[in-house]
Every structure is written in structure tokens, then in C-alpha cells.
Amino acid sequence: MIVRHWMSTDLVTISKEASIQEALALMKRESIRHLPVVDSRMRLLGWITDADMRGVLIASMIEELTLEDVMIRKPLTVGPEMPLEEAAHILLEKRIGGLPIIENGVLAGIITVADILSAFINILGLFTQSTRLDIKVSGAPNPLPEITRIARTHGAEIISLCQLPAAEDGADFFYSLRLKKTDPKPIITDLEKHGIEVVSTLDM
């Protein structure tokens, strides 16, 4: 997964000469929280957020301010080939809501927290019709081959299989197995015969 496949390319931009009020109106009209400031060649000059705009709104009523006065002049940027996980880590670590994507010196897209959330929801199949089994394994060094073998033996199609945080004492391992919607009962019975406990199930 790379940023290119999930970034927004239908870009809303603004010039550095625009006023604070113009920027706020544009962001409200387009329902966006991040606005890249670009020149006529789509080169990134700055970056503003709705929080930035609210912070200077009163000041802009007292004196004439443009976006050039208040924009972030050297925003953090990433490239379109960056792994999506790395972009997610940057957003979380820096506590920011979005990143401009630069390719060949110009603005190519924007990746936001919402884009990354959408990507992981899609990859994990969270909103598809599915059956989820939450599994606990005690003491098994690598139960994944056995779990997947049993699921496939019963004709189940695996959407995703995730390891969850381990117990504090390290004795138990937890997994979330998501299958295309199926009857889980024979799978559960077979798993438990092999010492693999299913602690909960969910049909969506």
C-alpha cells in the first residue's frame, strides 16, 4: 500500500494573496480542513488549516492580512510512493490531520487521516458482509498456519487475519479472523479441537 493509491487528487487550492475570509469561505464551501497555498504552476508555497484560520480571524478583522502572512511556509510533505503505514505514523506522531503530496516539484495530492482510515477499513474488510472470530491461543508459538488451514478446510474465504495486543503476562495470544459471511459453528468446533479458543464472534 502506497500513498498514491489513497491520496486525494481532486485538489482545492488557493493563492497566497487571498484573504483570511476568502480562505475560510472556501474551506466551508468545500467541507475541507486543509488548504494548500500554491502558485500558478501548482508549486506548494504554504499550508493552512481551519484551526490556523480561526486563530487569526479576529486579527484579520483589525488589520489587513493575507494567507502569505499566516500560512505555514515550509509544511511537512511526503511523496506518493511512501508506504501508507509510514504516512499514518507521521500523522499520528506529529498530531496533524493531513499531508501535502509532492511529485516532481508540484502538488500532486493530499493524504488525510480520513483517507488513511478509509484505506485500512477497506483493506480489513470491516464494512463488508463478514463473520469475525476473536481467537485466543495459549502457548502456541505460531498458530496462524493452523488457524488458516482449519478455516479453509471448511470452505471459508479469509478477508483478513490480525494479531491483537498480547496479554500482559505474554502467555496468551489474540487474533481477529475475518471471513466472508459464513456459518462459524463448524470452524469454531474444529479450532477448539486443536486447542484454539474462540472467545467471541460477530456477524456483519
Topology:
Blueprint: H1 20-30, E1 34-38, E2 44-49, H2 50-62, H3 67-70, H4 84-94, E3 98-103, E4 106-112, H5 113-124, E5 130-138, H6 144-153, E6 158-164, E7 172-180, H7 185-193, E8 197-203
Antiparallel strand pairs: 1-2, 3-4, 5-7, 5-8, 6-7
Helix pairs in contact: 1-2
Under CATH, the topology of the largest domain can be stated as: CBS-domain
Order of helices and strands: HEEHHHEEHEHEEHE
What's the CATH C level of the largest domain? Alpha Beta
Q: What is the end-to-end distance?
A: 25 Å
**Named CATH architecture of the largest domain:** Roll
Largest sheet: 4 strands, antiparallel
> What is the C-alpha radius of gyration, as a whole number of Å?
24 Å
- Overall residue-averaged pLDDT value: 89
Can you count the helices?
7
Helix vs. strand class: alpha+beta
Which residue ranges are poorly predicted, with pLDDT under 50 across at least 5 consecutive positions? none
Question: How many β-strand runs?
Answer: 8
